[in-house]
Amino acid sequence: MSIRSILTLLGPFLALVVVYCIFGAMKPAMFTSDVALNVLTQTVIVATAAIGMTLIIISGGIDLSVGSIIAMASVAAATLVTEGYPPLIVFGGTIAFGALCGIVNGGLTVGLRLMPFIVTLGTMQIFRGGAKVYSHGTPVNLPFDTTTYKAWMGGSGLPYGVWMMAALVIIMTLVLRFTRFGRYVYAIGSNENTATLCGVNVGRIKMMVYSLGGALAGLSAVMVMAKTNQGDPTTAMGMELNIIAAVVIGGASLSGGEGTVIGALIGALLMTTIQNGCNMNGIPTATTEVIAGVIIVIAVIIDRLRHRRAA
Amino acid sequence: MSRDPLPRLQMRGIRKTFGSTIALGRVDLEILPGEVHALVGENGAGKSTLMKVLSGAHSPDEGEMFFNGEPYRPRNPLEARARGVGMIYQELSIAPHLTVEENIVLGMEPVMGPFIDRKEMRRRALEALARFEHPDLRPDMRAGDLSVSAQQLIEIGRSLAMGCKVLVFDEPTSSLAQKDIERLFLLIDRLREQGISIIYISHFLEEVKRLASRLTVLRDGSVVGTLDVASASTDEIVSLMVGRSVEDLYPRTARTPGETILEIRKLAGASKPVSADLSLRRGEVIGIAGLVGSGRTEFLRALFGLDRVRSGEIVMAGKPGNASPRERWRQGMGMLSENRKEEGLALNLSIADNVTLTCLERFGSAGTVSPTKQQAATQSWIDRLGIKCQGPTQKIGSLSGGNQQKAAFARLLEHDVDILLLDEPTRGIDIAAKARIYEAINEAVTDPKRPRAVILISSYLPELFGTCDRIAVMSQGRLTRAVPVGNLTPEDVMRVATGKADDLPGSSS
Question: Which of its termini does chain A have fewer beta carbons within 10 Å around, N or C?
Fold first, then answer.
């Protein structure tokens, strides 16, 4: 890893440490392992989806429908559980379902050469509405005796979800840096024409990126279900914005060609820290939203300054 | 120099450093009223920095400037324009959604109370446009609908409407077609007659000779000479620019054409080319001359699979058929785009990523890529082509144009293609980089083990005559036979390119 990319990560990482310490100074309980564990666990849902979003954004695209995919997939996951399917089928089925949604996004973007912003603005409504239609607008609750999924987002010690998040971050970092697919994703985002000229199958790579984004949203949906014991068609409202914010705070450029998965994880952790820290200090939700918004704007400004200096 | 007319503009002892780099070391420049003064020099010689100082974008560390004899020290480009120094950059700054007149008065709109004074705006725009004698350009047109050359006029009009007496043109012809270039030259002549001083920056010495009365050569941040254009020879100017006498810019060792590896019959694209026949042999360079827009680029794009082929046949190394760019690379054909920024390079990726993008599969197994191997391969091209950079991981966008182009060329060499399609490979780059690319072309076609073949598009006839073995001309989508350069004169080529003749003279080869 070059010094430059370490510097890019260092910014958000320092921000995370500083913000965490500020809240810690106000409320020393922030430094207990319980709270730290809580922050990590709460980050899993956003971070998992943000990993997929990172790939989409690096390739020069965007997916506004990710929150809706999570909602719809969580309904699907809960339905599979209530039908009595084993965890393997529930995980596999929900991930495949998310991937399918991603294929719809990718297919419209690539096949019809539409702007991903507009396409996913539309599918955001379609998926959300679809989830509500299917579940008649009410959550699908897991049976009371279901305990299989508890350990993913809670229980004692590090939940499985945190391990999964860490593994995903490592795997996707390696994929982006050390595989042809990863290098093509950066090349397409940096200059699609160059990628075409150089013989990269741009359409296929984009399809892979969007379906991978959908698949990770599906996995995120299983975590939502594990946490809430239900599949709720109204869950993850507006979460797409938190997910995109995490990616951008982590140093990705919305014009493509730049970004890292570790950055996105740090961005997601920062968002959770703010929420938790405000919560523990008794700061009202409305104020928390303002603070989170300010942090996003600051992240964008820093990004801007960094680019200006580099230019 | 006669002191008689008061200089319009004087720059004295201008010095500018960036950190430890001396961009300008005490530069003097004097511009007279109503003269076209050319500023030439290799990339990095300090031309842009000097002009940025003049336009107020940079403030000099030392030195003083006078405008019409009065001290002049602009703090920003807007102030410089208000004082009478306007810049016409290579990259136009036009707001495409606004009209011509709105663009002309942009930033200094006449107002009546809180509202734009539309009548006054129209008057000023018409006044500026009147100087162009260009009846097709009306104030209410949408700027984005106009051609690049018309947009350039808007930009010039903007400076004129402000009453600028000095206009700086930075490589103004790089994005213009031939007929628009001629039109621009006539306009510059006219502006000069109206007493406006023009500083003209260009890589093309032909343009300089056509337009300028004097020229100043910059090298390594210093003025190495100011010459009267009429009495200066091209060789003299070039040797001042590069700091050594001009050896042969176009190296050419003995070439022996081998087997035919590309056969093109009656190729037609979506709109252009209409019809192109060509057969290319190993060990030769075929040049394609023609005006911008004649279908030269479209010919290469169709051949390479970037654009649709309507009809015709392509036989590559014995295998017929059309192919995608991906398949072409696999067959051993590579293309260098004329448009480095838009298409040729992924600017925010590293040099290594750009050089190896077409053949990542060679740098690891099972879909993996080893950055170390990528960098090692790239480093060898950096050394061999003399790419000035910090190393293979540097972002390619931060290199100079000439070094970017060398890296784009290295992509074809790294892929080790048999056929190199080169579209304007030396446009807008400095002479040293050009020389290096000509050398690399010659090395490729004279490789004793496996001589490559090259198709070279160029608008610059000396380059075609210097590097090619045969030349074909594209005119309105039709490609002539390729004729050995020995049987041709530049006039023959121009006659066909401009439609004054149908075919090149001489025997077919």
Answer: C
